[in-house]
Design goal:
single chain; alpha+beta; 7-stranded mixed beta sheet; 21 strands
């Protein structure tokens, strides 16, 4: 005989958004069940921020999010702000610090945030279940019937917080998109975001030699720019600047790199031209840029362009200076692709916001059905923005579900 379970609210997906939604709804006196197919909830919380969890940002703005409707996220972000979440963290006496650019990290471990959410769920009376497989979802007079490995769960409100496709080893699936499509929601084409680039050929060979080296740059593509550190890897490029710009990059697009982002490039070029004439180009560049980068990347690039790398600055022609300047502040790279969902921190695209209430996250096609977090076509920049979207969208749905 199939077991029947009745609850007011069923939340599918025990990540950041699902946990926030469940505890918010539970505190309203609703009977809430939170289920996840994985063996543990909150895995991405644990791995985030290098194990320190960049849980939000002091400066949250809708400009920090990508969506076909860039204004959609405004309402939820306003209803539950980063200040609100910080107050929750402080109530649990979790020590944290600002790293840079308003990014907030735990002093200790990401587990502090996950434990806080679990504790809040317990206080709110939320029933949490892992290893739950969902077989099918149907509507009924009182809401929804969810056929799963626990039996049949009957609920008034059903919340889909199943996340996106990023990091499949953590259990990511396209479950939420399938449910949305069944209801009639449009799915905005998904792709990997906040993800490293891979290169082939000579560039891969050179970048591999520089693996582990980091330096500040300005990266640009498609009218977007980010000034942050770039990290060379065995397969290509990573680091904050690369992850940020990857969300705006499409296959076939070139990247424009300013290698002198840490200095006033015009002043630097003018200085080495006018005041350092007896030094070689190589030695002058090594005063500002890492030796390995100058030796491996610039030396080969300038050799191809027939730039006299070992020549004294005073002997370099104006024509060659134009080539040098262009290489240093307007270099062009062509990635072969990205590392894909395997290492991507987020999934771009997802359930279209066109048929979702921006205030409650409720489907306009099926009453009592909600979509929150990464499954929705709202993706934040690197720096705590995606967690804040999870907290805000989860709270918005939990306040009414």
């Amino acid at each position: 005989m199939i077991k029947k379970i009745v609850t007011d609210v069923l939340v599918i997906g025990g990540g950041a958004a699902g946990l926030m939604c469940a505890l918010t709804s539970g505190y309203r006196g609703r009977q809430v069940m939170l289920v996840d197919h994985a063996n543990r909830m909150g895995k991405k919380i644990l791995m985030s921020g290098g194990g320190k969890c960049n849980f939000t940002n002091y400066e949250i703005n809708f400009h920090n999010y990508l969506s076909e409707n860039p204004h959609f996220c405004k309402s939820a972000l306003k209803r539950y702000t980063s200040t609100d979440f910080i107050e929750l963290v402080e109530r649990h006496s979790i020590p944290f610090h600002e790293k840079k650019h308003g990014q907030l990290f735990c002093d200790n471990k990401s587990k502090d945030i996950l434990d806080m959410l679990f504790t809040e769920c317990d206080y709110a009376g939320v029933i949490r279940k892992t290893h739950v497989e969902i077989y099918g979802i149907d509507t009924c007079n009182t809401g929804y019937l969810v056929n799963c490995s626990l039996g049949i769960i009957q609920c008034e409100s059903l919340v889909i917080a199943s996340g996106g496709l990023s990091i499949p080893t953590m259990g990511a699936t396209g479950f939420g998109y399938k449910i949305a499509e069944q209801i009639g929601h449009q799915i905005i084409k998904t792709r990997a975001g906040l993800v490293p680039f891979i290169f082939t050929g000579k560039e891969k060979e050179v970048f591999s030699q520089l693996s582990g080296l980091s330096l500040p740059v300005k990266l640009s593509t498609n009218n977007q720019s980010f000034s942050e550190n770039l990290l060379f890897t065995h397969r290509g490029l990573s680091g904050p600047a690369v992850l940020q710009i990857s969300s705006y990059w499409q296959l076939g697009d070139k990247l424009t790199v300013n290698w002198l982002a840490s200095s006033a490039e015009n002043d630097f070029l003018k200085h080495i031209q006018q005041n350092n004439g007896k030094s070689t180009l190589k030695n002058s560049l090594q005063e500002t840029l890492p030796n390995r980068f100058v030796e491996n990347y610039l030396s080969q690039s300038f050799s191809i362009s027939k730039i006299p790398f070992q020549k004294k600055l005073a002997e370099i022609s104006r024509k060659n200076w134009d080539v040098i300047s262009e290489k240093l502040i307007n270099d062009h790279l062509l990635p072969a692709g990205t590392e894909g969902y395997r290492t991507a921190e987020v999934t771009l695209g997802g359930v279209s916001t066109k048929a979702i209430s921006s205030q409650t996250m409720e489907s306009e096609l099926s009453k009592g059905l909600y979509f929150i977090g990464e499954v929705v076509d709202v993706t934040g920049h690197l720096g705590g923005y995606n967690f804040q979207w999870a907290w805000s969208s989860g709270y918005a749905a939990g306040s009414v579900a």
